[in-house]
Amino acid sequence: MTAATPTHPRPETRLRVAVAGLGAIARTAHLPLLERRRELFEITALCDLSPGALAELGARYGVPPQHRHTSTEALLAQGGFDAVLLLTSGSHGPAAEAALRAGYAVLCEKPLAFTRAEAARIAEAERAQQRGPRLMVGYMKQYDPATRRLATLLAEAGGPSRIRSAEVCVLHPTGPDQLAFAQLPAPYDDLDAGALAALKAHDEALTNAALGSGATEAMRSLYHIVTGSISHDLSLLRTAVGAPESVEFAAMWGASAEGPGSVELSGALPGGARYAIRWHFLPGHAAYRETFAVHHEGGTLELAFPSPYLMNAPTVLTETSSGPGQGPHAERRAEYRSVIEAFEEELVAFHTMVTAGTPPRTGVDGATEDLITAQRAVAAYAACHQLPCDGEAASV
């Protein structure tokens, strides 16, 4: 079936958007914010494996039954929108490529893809449109006002060349613990078993292509933690100094029936700086917390992020430096915070990308750099434990 030709808006007009994937992040962030910014967006189509979720949210957001779909193929074929938000789980590679080839702009949640081959096909599909940037990857923390302020202060301090190290710590409680405040309904149990099994099998095949069919469960878990969560921290590294040049050490420990445990990565950054990332899944921890610290020759810049599900909760940026005229041992600390929502800023930037051609902070190239880092992490872990590492990870 041939996809309908989208109608492309003029600058400063509303974008008609389709939302594919009606899970927690759609319910707590994207759908309410699209509704909040009605001067920029109109929700005209929905897609999810669950007919119950489609009926519930279709009624809530005024999307008629004929524009509710249980597959992205049906969604793209019918059309009736200018852009699509891909918020589904697993690899978004096939859907992103298909949407671009059908002429739609795409805002895609991470991970964009599981393999570099998928990313290359997406890049080719975007170039084929010959219309400038058409895909944004959903690293909302790059659009946080505190992150933008960090970049400004780092430039004033002399730029990335003055960085000595970047250090990340993520304390990650369970999803239900983070979402208890939202009072979300229980997940629907009406998913088509055959369709769900096919999607899982496809993602498994892509993971095999990335790591080799002999990859252990620990290697697979590491890969999906990096691509699905630590990728946010990689996006912050790219914002501050650039993508990691290497992964020299990768470790995992503490896995149990309750969760995947902890991950540690370290290596080199551009210009000779170093990075260290520690990510901990802590089922009993009181609250989500993520810190991103950059130590440079004149001081430290540290971001502290709350749970991403808390809309308009401030990210806190703390600047530590030596104050002018205060002597060599005097320390000045300044705190910056804003309640402007990063997800909302990301949506506004997506509108600007589509209507004015402004490049996104992360497109296919940045997402590919993050895939390379994830594959390097698995290769480093495999080498340390003398495990087989094949697929794309064997050649990074």
Describe this structure in words.
With 396 residues, this protein is of the alpha/beta class. It has 2 domains: 15-138, Rossmann fold; 141-342 and 364-395, Dihydrodipicolinate Reductase, domain 2, CATH 3.30.360.10. It has helices at residues 24-36, 51-61, 72-78, 93-101, 116-129, 145-156, 175-179, 193-211, 217-240, 342-356, 364-385, and strands at 15-20, 41-47, 68-69, 83-86, 105-108, 135-137, 163-172, 249-253, 262-268, 274-281, 289-296, 299-305, 315-321, 332-338. The strands form 2 sheets. An 8-stranded mixed beta sheet has the order 8-9-10-7-11-12-13-14. Strands 3-2-1-4-5-6 form a 6-stranded parallel beta sheet, sandwiched between helices. Strand 2 (41-47), helix 2 and strand 3 form a beta-alpha-beta unit. The longest helix has 24 residues, at 217-240. It is globular. It starts with 14 loop residues before the first strand and ends in an 11-residue tail after the last helix.
State the strand order across the main sheet. Answer: 8-9-10-7-11-12-13-14
Number of strand segments: 14
Spell out the CATH superfamily of the largest domain. Dihydrodipicolinate Reductase, domain 2
The N- and C-terminal alpha carbons lie at a distance of 38 Å
Briefly note the CATH topology name of the largest domain: Dihydrodipicolinate Reductase, domain 2
CATH architecture classification of the largest domain: 2-Layer Sandwich
What is the general shape?
globular
Q: What kind of oligomer do you see? A: single chain
